[in-house]
Amino acid sequence: MKRLMMLGPPGAGKGTQAQKLVEAFEIPQISTGDLLRAAKRNGTELGKQAAPFMDNGKLVPDALVIGMVKERITLPDAKNGYIFDGFPRTRTQSEALDEMDVVLDHVISIEVSEPELIRRLAGRRSCKECKAVYHLEFAPPTKADTCDKCGCSPLIQRSDDQPAKIKQRLIEYAAETSPLIEFYQGKGILVQIDGEGDPKEIKKRIQSALGT
Ligand code: AMP
Predict the structure, then answer these.
(1) Catalytic sites, residue numbers
(2) I want to staple 9 with a disulfide (CB 3.0 to 4.6 A). Which of 88, 89, 143, 173 is the partner?
(3) Is residue 59 lining ligand 1, measured as CB closer than 6 Å?
(4) Is residue 102 a part of any domain in this protein?
(5) pLDDT of residue 168
(6) For residue 98, what are the domain limits?
(7) φ, ψ for residue 171 (rounded to 5)?
């Protein structure tokens, strides 16, 4: 059983690095952001309740997110562990994990400066069909505004990657989520990683810190 968590501000590269760890550890990534976006797209009750918060760069209420995670971790693919990406994001959510008897092995805190976060988020684009993610500056598609994987065009910008929403998400992170760094440090399971530079290098930093 391996339970990992990616902790860091929006744009730190939690999702990118979690995907790399999926291959290394053969356990699934559980991204609450992805689950909530899927719920929103599918028009479920949860999606409808979460949408106004997400669209304004605010955190979705704890009870909704906790219920969703509780269900997700009972699915068969999670039996040998998982990598939480973007969860927990508040103290209440981390306490809910204790109540579920979920003990995290490592919390990987990815550190990136604020100007760099803004650059990364503002340039992020994705394919509305296959969800492949690009960056106008760092990872552009071969043909402008067209998905390399499925040919879909145009690429879209997440509604919460617009400048005013980015600012709000960073404020939420500082107020609600960043206190978890000290909390997990106190538990002796925090691994701090410099999140600037080539994603392949960052992956190596994580793997060497985890001793894998
Ligand atoms: P992300 O893709 O992780 O940046 O998440 C996108 C949005 O989904 C966030 O800005 C929140 O509105 C919502 N969200 C994702 N994870 C959580 C969470 N653990 N708690 C509350 N809201 C969340």
Answers:
(1) 14, 89, 124, 158, 169
(2) 173
(3) yes
(4) yes
(5) 94
(6) 2-113+162-210
(7) -65, -45
